[in-house]
């Protein structure tokens, strides 16, 4: 699959919408899968093996189908992006969710659009964020704050550490930096083999950190629950193969500000899954927060004429 993104061949609107839907819904569900996985699996080891398997199989399948081999510069850039996205971004989130409540984690992670805008501005030749982008980010942040604030009772008795909160802040910045770097530096023609390369590089980085933390020595198959194993497989298939490939594709055809809107929608998906699977109540505060989040997303993503009309 080789999408055309030149001015004469703009990306398919349908494909772009499907990719956004995947990133919104699938990644919204991965918070639950990560929480279940780290119950009996070491965090960095789980994340590292996940991306090595997902990236290795995806890369082998694409090469078997005849996708061109990447150049050395593509591997260099993939190592940088994979480390920033998957070690600094995903790995720190997995590690932090051991000690930080999921609602608090969602509130901190929703700051990523701010980092997206700043890194896109600070890069050489970067663009200053327009007023509408800042307005959309602010409204979306207010919606997520209202959403998490409405579930504050769930934080009672939960363990929250300063190190976990700092890790989440670093994860936001690392993910945004890797995403912006990926957009403006050389990468393979196929965004999917690019995703596979980044997963391989990120997986190696995560496993190296797992080794330094002694996670290999502490791991025992007999201690892994069925639920954690199922969550691990879900993260490989849906979180990595499907979700991450859609994300890399969007970075190729869309702007960082638009792609970053997943940070607003994912908490809404998490609430809906909690209501359906765990019986958590959906209050009026949750509904209002969802409307505010959608409004922020619309301000950022809609073209100027459509935004003015709305």
Walkthrough of the structure:
By secondary structure, the protein is mostly helical. It has one domain. Helix content is 75%, strand content 0%. The chain is built from 14 helices and no strands. The chain has helices spanning 13-37, 43-64, 72-96, 102-109, 112-122, 131-149, 162-184, 191-212, 215-218, 226-253, 256-259, 262-278, 284-301, 304-309. Helix 3 (72-96) packs across helix 8 and helix 5 crosses helix 7 (162-184). The two termini are 35 Å apart.
Unreliable sequence segments: 151-159
In percent, how helical is the residue content? over 70%
How many structural domains does the protein architecture include?
A: 1
Work out the number of β strands: 0
CA gyration radius, whole angstroms: 19 Å
Order of helices and strands: HHHHHHHHHHHHHH
Shape: globular
Span between termini: 35 Å
The main pleated sheet reads as: none
């Amino acid at each position: 699959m080789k999408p055309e993104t030149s001015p004469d061949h703009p990306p398919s609107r349908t494909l772009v919408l499907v990719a956004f839907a995947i990133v919104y819904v699938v990644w919204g569900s991965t918070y639950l899968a990560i929480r279940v996985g780290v119950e009996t699996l070491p965090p960095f080891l789980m994340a590292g093996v996940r991306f090595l398997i997902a990236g290795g199989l995806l890369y082998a399948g694409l090469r078997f189908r005849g996708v061109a081999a990447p150049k050395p510069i593509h591997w260099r850039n993939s190592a940088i992006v994979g480390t920033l996205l998957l070690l600094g971004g995903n790995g720190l989130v997995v590690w932090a969710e051991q000690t930080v409540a999921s609602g608090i984690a969602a509130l901190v992670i929703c700051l990523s659009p701010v980092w997206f805008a700043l890194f896109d501005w600070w890069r050489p030749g970067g663009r200053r964020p327009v007023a509408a982008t800042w307005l959309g980010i602010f409204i979306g942040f207010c919606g997520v704050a209202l959403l998490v604030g409405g579930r504050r009772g769930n934080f009672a008795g939960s363990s929250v550490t300063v190190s976990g909160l700092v890790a989440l802040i670093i994860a936001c910045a690392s993910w945004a930096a890797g995403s912006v770097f990926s957009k403006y530096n050389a990468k393979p023609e196929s965004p999917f083999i690019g995703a596979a390369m980044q997963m391989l590089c990120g997986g190696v980085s995560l496993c190296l950190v797992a080794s330094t933390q002694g996670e290999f020595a502490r791991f025992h198959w007999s201690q892994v629950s069925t639920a954690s194993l199922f969550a691990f497989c879900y993260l490989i298939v849906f979180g990595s193969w499907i979700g991450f490939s859609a994300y890399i594709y969007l970075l190729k055809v869309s702007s960082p500000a638009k792609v970053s809107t997943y940070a607003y929608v994912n908490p809404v998906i998490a609430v809906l899954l909690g209501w359906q699977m765990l019986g958590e109540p959906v209050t009026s505060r949750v509904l209002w927060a969802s409307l505010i989040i959608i409004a922020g997303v619309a301000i950022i993503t809609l073209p100027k004429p459509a935004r003015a009309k709305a």
